[in-house]
Amino acid sequence: MDDIVKQAMAKWPSVPSCHGWLGLDVRGNWYLRDDRAQAAGAFQSGLPGSKGSLLTHEKLMDFIARNYLADAQGQWFFQNGPQRVYVELQATPLIWRVQPDFGVKDHLGRAAEVQGVWLDEAGYLYLASTAGLGLVHTQDMGLAAQAVERGLWRPQEVLQAELPGLFGFVKSPQAGQAK
Question: What is the pLDDT of residue 130?
Answer without folding.
Answer: 87
